[in-house]
Amino acid sequence: MKGLFIVFEGIDGGGKSTQIQMLSDFFDSKGYEVERHMEPTHAVIGSLLWDYMNSKSRSFDPETEALLFAADRIEHGKVIKESLVKGKVVISDRYKHSSLAYQGAAGVDVEWMQSLNKHALVPDLVILLDIDPDKSLERVSDRAKTVFEKKEYLKKVRAEYIRYAETGELVVVDALQSIEDVHEDILAHVKKLTE
Ligand code: TYD
Question: What is the pTM of this model?
Answer without folding.
Answer: 0.95
